[in-house]
Amino acid sequence: MFKGVSAKFGERIAIIDSSGTKVTYSDLEEFSVQLKSLIPKGSLIFSLCSNSIESLKGYFSFIRNGVTPVMLDASLDKDLLSRLISTYSPKYIWLPKERIVNFDDVRVLFSYGDYVLIKRTCENTYELHNDLALLLTTSGSTGSPKLVKITLKNLKSNAHSIAEYLSIDKNERPITTLPMNYSFGLSIINSHILKGATILLTSKSLMERGFWTFLKEQKATSISGVPYTFEILKKLRFFRSDAPSLKTITQAGGKLNHELNKEVLEYSIRFDKSFFVMYGQTEATARMSYLPPEFSLAKLGSIGIAIPGGEFSIMDDSSRSITGDEIVGELVYEGSNVSMGYASCGEDLNKADANNGVLFTGDLAKRDKDDYYYIVGRKKRFIKIYGNRVNLDETERLLKDIISDCACIGEEDHMCIFITDENRIDEIKKFISSKMGLHHSTFIIKSIDEIPKNSSGKTIYSSLNI
């Protein structure tokens, strides 16, 4: 996938980190040559990722050299990491130096900056499918053994499609706000490297002054985020004034509530930015749709149209195509970025493509008369309350019009709503009863300190208990 980028872009700057360190495309290539002699092609490697030069150089090298990385959060709990290692038995691990203490019986092969390459002594390793290039954790997982199997074709296809509809060229300077072990964050890196752009790499959060200093000094041209990112930006009053260097804002990873979506859109219009709402899943490498900015107001709430090379359809419960407008069914995507399927154990790493380019997303959607698509919920995020079907995602979206931090879970005949402001319990109770026609005895509202979220800002529903 990255073959030829160094020859094409040579001494152009590929990365600038928040300490001011610069890396050229030639530097990336030289680093990959160093690692090539240490890790045989076709090997499995665990890469404990951070938004650092060491981590990004490692990723570039693995993909460039035909080594298959499992991208994991560098701060992943040691017991969860141990479980994954036991499941997939990688011989190599690329990790921050301070994490070596978590391992016994390993040999350090290479050291660079704050990272080291270690080799494990393991009796059993698993054979990898020839097409397998990358493994990512499923959305929201924190140490789950379930991984998405991605090919080089998937990566190339998605990166080129994204670069096309975002008009990415070598002059772009995206700033990182998402972890690179998350498919959305990684797709930003892939699509910009392919075009010779300069990635502004930082692990600083939006809440840190250093992030905004870095953005301003390095003249970032784009910023991306999930709904939680935009909630933070709103709290920081970001939308009240211009950031002159920014040209593009992209959003994926879940649906923005109506009011926040409108606020971001109004900001982008006022200050002449291009705001792209997008939709994707790790199972499709990263992204499947985008809403062209010129339709952002007219199609507010839509995920837009399929990316270049992709195609949507809507299926009923019998997997028959729904051709009418405004009829809800399961959203199905077809494209060369659709992954091979899942691995849940080592033996799965050598299994053939289970999807054949078609992904049943598990999302319920409808299509309007202009062939723009709208997500209305998840197939599995439904409960029945006294015979009435209740969409938990839609309930959350209703709530987020009046309260930004909330989460809904439920079981048969009972729903639980979590908020972080105890003073609004009665208000929320009246709102839900009024909007949804539910008797107050069918749901409860709990106040908790914070809604649990993973590193990419998505709610961890498994951490919530009724």
Please write out the topology.
Elements: H1 5-9, E1 13-17, E2 22-24, H2 25-36, E3 44-49, H3 53-65, E4 68-73, H4 78-88, E5 92-96, E6 106-112, E7 115-120, E8 132-137, E9 147-151, H5 152-165, E10 174-175, H6 183-193, E11 199-201, H7 209-217, E12 222-225, H8 227-235, E13 248-251, H9 258-270, E14 274-280, E15 287-291, E16 305-306, E17 311-315, E18 329-334, E19 341-343, E20 358-367, E21 373-378, E22 382-385, E23 388-391, H10 392-399, E24 406-411, E25 414-419, H11 425-436, E26 443-447
Parallel strand pairs: 1-11, 3-4, 3-5, 4-8, 10-12, 12-13, 13-14, 25-26
Antiparallel strand pairs: 1-2, 5-7, 6-7, 8-9, 9-19, 14-15, 15-16, 17-18, 18-20, 20-21, 22-23, 24-25
How would you describe this structure to a colleague?
The protein is α/β, with parallel strands linked by helices. Helices cover 25% and strands 28% of the residues. It contains eleven helices and 26 strands. The protein has an eight-stranded mixed sheet. The termini are far apart. The mean pLDDT is 93.
Helicity, as a percent range: 25-40%
- The neighbouring-strand order within the major sheet is 6-7-5-3-4-8-9-19
What low-confidence regions span 5 or more consecutive residues with pLDDT below 50? none
DSSP helix count? Answer: 11
Question: What keywords describe this structure?
Answer:
466 residues, 11 helices, 8-stranded mixed β-sheet, globular, 26 strands, alpha/beta, 6-stranded mixed β-sheet, 28% strand, single chain
